[in-house]
Each structure stands twice: as C-alpha cells, then as structure tokens.
C-alpha cells in the first residue's frame, strides 16, 4: 500500500520530530473561498484533527490526521479545490507586515475586518463560522484572518458572533503583535 505522502504529493507530510501526519494546504495570495473553508472545517472535524494552524507562509496546516483517514481527507480537500501541491505564495499589496487587525472602512459602505486567534490556530468550529460569512477569507503573513468587502451591518454581526468564539479583533492584543507570529 502506498504511503499517505504518495497519495497526495505536496499535501501530506510526516513531521519528523513527532511522526504526526500533517496536511499542508497552500493558498494563493493567502486567499480561501468561503465554501472551501467550510469544507475544510467539516473535514477536520470529521477526521478528529484538532485544529487548523495558520502559517506565515500563506498555508494552512492540519496536524494529527490518522493514516486511516488520509484517503478520505485528501479526497475532501480535492473536492474543495484544496488538494493541489503547495503553491508558491504571491505577495499582495498590503500583505506585508502591516497589521490588519480591526475594522477598516473602504469609504464605499464596505468594510474589512481582521482578526487573530491565540497561537494562530483555528478550530473546526471557528473555521466553519468564518466560512459561513460567504465571502473569501485571506490569511496574512502575520496569521491574521481578514474578511473583506462586507457591509457594515454584516461586519458588526461578524464581530459579535466571532469574538466569543476566540477571534480577536483588537489590534492591541498580544496575539496581534509581531512577536506572536514567531
């Protein structure tokens, strides 16, 4: 039988320090469509993985996938458009190290809200709620979760719903500091 890495080259890797299987999901420009994020959240919950790790390299990592779930998890990633080998990150304007945590008005009635989470981790539940907003989500190099192009009323609801789930919208939080990225 082939190894998990053979089934989906570029996606599954075994952490040499812990022997835990890791799925590394590359995001072009750090962007993930809402439906793909929701599908990933469901897959993470269904295979019993504990969280989605945000990285500073436009990737999402899922640790602790049991070997017996690799085929199913890989199929679900592919169905969501996330199963391709890692893409080379493309630098976007404004996605350097400028903080994107908080509420930012566009001036056209639309806003961008940015948040961080403790340790740069998303639970399956957090990812599912972020996907439910229905717009693409961008993960920055500072492991910020940016939801852009939403109306003020929607943004207000997003903050009210996501904050109690552990999304931190305060730019002064210790988790929003550059030291938290390391």
From TrEMBL:
<dbReference type="InterPro" id="IPR005117">
    <property type="entry name" value="NiRdtase/SiRdtase_haem-b_fer"/>
</dbReference>
<feature type="domain" description="Nitrite/Sulfite reductase ferredoxin-like">
    <location>
        <begin position="22"/>
        <end position="78"/>
    </location>
</feature>
<dbReference type="Pfam" id="PF03460">
    <property type="entry name" value="NIR_SIR_ferr"/>
</dbReference>
<dbReference type="InterPro" id="IPR036136">
    <property type="entry name" value="Nit/Sulf_reduc_fer-like_dom_sf"/>
</dbReference>
<protein>
    <recommendedName>
        <fullName>Nitrite/Sulfite reductase ferredoxin-like domain-containing protein</fullName>
    </recommendedName>
</protein>
């Amino acid at each position: 039988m082939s190894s998990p890495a053979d089934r989906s080259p570029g996606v599954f890797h075994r952490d040499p320090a812990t022997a835990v299987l890791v799925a590394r999901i590359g995001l072009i420009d750090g962007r993930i469509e809402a439906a793909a994020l929701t599908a990933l959240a469901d897959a993470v919950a269904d295979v019993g993985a504990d969280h989605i790790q945000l990285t500073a390299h436009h990737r999402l990592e899922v640790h602790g996938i049991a070997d017996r779930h690799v085929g199913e998890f890989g199929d679900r990633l592919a169905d969501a458009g996330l199963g391709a080998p890692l893409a080379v990150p493309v630098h976007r304007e404004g996605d350097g190290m400028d903080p994107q945590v908080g509420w930012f008005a566009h001036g056209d009635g639309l806003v961008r809200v940015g948040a961080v989470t403790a340790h740069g981790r998303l639970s399956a539940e957090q990812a599912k709620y972020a996907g439910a907003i229905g717009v693409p989500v961008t993960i920055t190099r500072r492991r910020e979760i940016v939801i852009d192009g939403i109306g003020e009323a929607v943004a207000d609801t997003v903050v009210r719903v996501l904050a109690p789930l552990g999304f931190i919208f305060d730019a002064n939080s210790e988790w929003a500091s550059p030291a938290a990225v390391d």
